[in-house]
Amino acid sequence: MRIKTISRSVDEFTRERSQDLQRVFHNFDPSLRPMEKAVEYQRALTAAKLEKIFARPFVGAMDGHRDGISCMAKNPNYLKGIFSASMDGDIRLWDIATSRRTVCQFPGHLGAVRGLTVSTDGNVLVSCGTDCNVRLWSVPRPSLEDSDLSSEKSTEVVHSICGLYLQECVILSFTSRAVDHQFEGDLFATAGAQLDIWNHNRSQPVQSFTSGSHSVISVRFNPGEPDILATSSGDNHISIYDIRMSSAARKILMRTKTNSIAWNPMEPMNFTAANEDGNCYSFDGRKNEEAKCVHKDHVSAVMDIDFSPTGREFVTGSYDRSVRIFPYNGGHSREIYHTKRMQRVFCVKYSSDATYVISGSDDTNLRLWKAKASEQLGVILPREQKKHEYNEAVKNRYKHLPEIKRIVRHRHLPKPIYKAKAESRAMNDAKRRKDDRRKAHSAPGTVVTESHRTRRIIKEVE
Amino acid sequence: MEVALEDNNLMEKVLPPDEQEIDVELEAKEKKYLRGEGANLESLKDKKLKTQLASREKLYGKSAKAAAKIEKWLLPASAGYLETEGLEKTWRIKQTDIAKEVRETVRDVAFLHNDQFFAAAQKKYSYIYARDGTELHCLKERGPVARLRFLKNHFLLASINKIGQLHYQDVTYGDMVASIRTGKGRTDVMEVNPYNGVVALGHSGGTVTMWKPTSQAPLVQMQCHPGPVSAVAFHPNGHLMATSGKERKVKIWDLRKFEEVQTIHGFHAKTLSFSQKGLLAAGTGSFVQVLGDSSGGGGGYSRYMSHSMVKGYQVEKVMFRPYEDVLGIGHSMGWSSVLIPGSGEPNFDSWVANPFETSKQRREKEVHLLLDKLPPETIMLDPSKIGAMRPSRRKERPTRGEIEVEKEVAIEAAKSVEMKKKTKGRNKPSKRTKKKKELVENAKKTFPELEHSNIAGKKRRIGEDAAAELPASLKRFARKN
Predict the structure, then answer these.
(1) Could you give the CA distance from residue B429 to residue B328 in angstroms, rounded to a whole number?
(2) Distance from CA of A22 to the nearest CA of B (A)
(3) The whole model's pTM is what?
(4) Of A328, A410, B65, B348, whose CB count within 10 A is highest?
């Protein structure tokens, strides 16, 4: 007969010296873990509560402008800096990382600055304003002792198109509303009564597109295809242009005007349009009859939109004094940021490392928020990182159960937004009920319900 | 754990026979890690949710495969065994073949969450002591306690006292969570089912009742034996329960169907205990018998080993030591231990139970256990229900069509009843027809829903089930859900 019993030798299972790590053994047999689902649920509940405890999204406000902020621009080469321009012509470069102060100012515009953009190599800043000027500035290279830059410096206008300054006033007999720079190359586009494509070195536009009587409000180049850009105009159109062609490639007519457009950096054929009716519409650039997704949560007009570099989320700022973060394919926002002091939000940017969101608003302040409200900033140990990931995963597994859903979904809304949402919900419910009854009492097929994705689009032209 | 993307094309090649064998073995192990059937995704209409769940199900499959492979190749220790050759029987092998204080009555002792604390049920009250013997608490509320057990995940100390009251106390903050009057009199047979945290009491009438702290009535009452129940034991997987009664029978029950699976005759087991690998130890008099399961599911318990002590020693309690091949026997003269190969789980998981843990690890584990403490409401017969979908109720109620069919059948049955022919002038045809009509009316009365609905036809909501029976012009008013 053969007999064997379990015998464990101590040195196999314990460490030799106190400097060694403790040995860990695994056995994944489920019978060793009774009630594992209940324990997981308990951990999900704790994780949801902890997330709420650590949710401190507001990092700081940057004060300095003397009038409401009208536009912002990200420098693609320099993570810590952001440009902002206000309604009195003041353009500033901020250091948002360490000191949250102005690094340098670019004075010169006489009226409100309406558009700001930076070239891809980070050297040239283009600004346009209501004084019919388009100015090119040279951006100071950040020196190695960045943290010592605590004093404000004002730089001279290095590369303004000298000699052609006056000439620009004549040519641009209209104010320009927006400007955007191409991702690869030297061209930038200004939007005003017509859409102009410029080169850095020329004083005349390389190409012009006229599109009817209304002015072009916003313009955005495609990150994937350097020659494609999307514009929105005051007569509720969204147009996609290819600068190699002479007229618009595609045009979509909607019911209300679009304030801003952003292309998805990870899926460059999709773009999202921030509309005046409070919704954001995601479109596939190739197929425009219906929106891919309608993102509804704002109560008032959405003023600006920016995608995260991961392409999974975008941030919107709206006239209703709130900043919301939406998932790229989800209809409702996952997060809302608001403060009593923040008034109408006119521009938002998602930082290039996908950690921060910057909002510029009417109350002359730029505010820095965390993109994930309960995230721990700074250097995280790998054990901490694993625990965060585990908490996230276990919370997502049980987030549909009522107790956890209640905690995860809970957000405090300012009273005007809360009331406006309740009102719109009541209105929508009533409308839907009436439509259902109308449909039930008519011959089948006569009353057609429009899907939300096509409801606000009137038609596609071309 | 990193799971490398398996090349699915490889799986379709024809493998050599020994590799096929390994595959079959791995598949059998995988089932254990899959923890039940996958979700039924066909009935989902939401496409986004469907794709998300489908990718998650795939991930579960992969992790189960990886865990099965780890179990096969990477676990450090292997289980003990006792293999016989030829005509030898395992129970003939003896131990010699294998190798060579409180002065009160204490009725029961139970360790709390680790070995630093234990509770003792003494003559009048129960006390909680620290490891070195200092008395920490006196639990007066419970009265004289017959049995004490600790529910590990919930930090509840359960006890049954001489009057038959069941007490649950949370030892983290001392609150008495529940005191339940069982109503069945005095008993000292109490066991905790480790799979779901349910407390089972064996009574003198032969019933086994199962309790949870949040209800005053028992969850289950099973009539197990004609006489008093002497001992109860639970298999660690939660499906099997062994009970022994004074009529010299040991019965094995399946707890999913509450059916008897096996009866073992011949001896009256005063104490029963299951090991981690499913061996059942039964102690009677001065004789301990260990039964092993030859079939996987629990029906084939037969003699595996036995051990008889010196004649005067009366065996009071047997208990298997976890993670070791050792059976501890408590008897009238003290305590002894015997070796039972193949009873313990050879591979422990350091995060669950580490026999070699240092004091630092013990302290950290205590904190983690406290963080994961479950509320008493989670004790239920089927713990896998947490997080599961609620089954849709619509199929339970019979549709209108079905009710009509049943009604027709009942009316037919009533009509075809043979009427007894009465004599002496009482067999009038009018009376006979009246009687038959009465029977049919009675048959119809057992379907009151239809009766009522015929009266209040217009006000009735037209359900989805009835949509199929509506005439075509009214179909648009069927209630959509």
Answers:
(1) 83
(2) 9
(3) 0.81
(4) B348
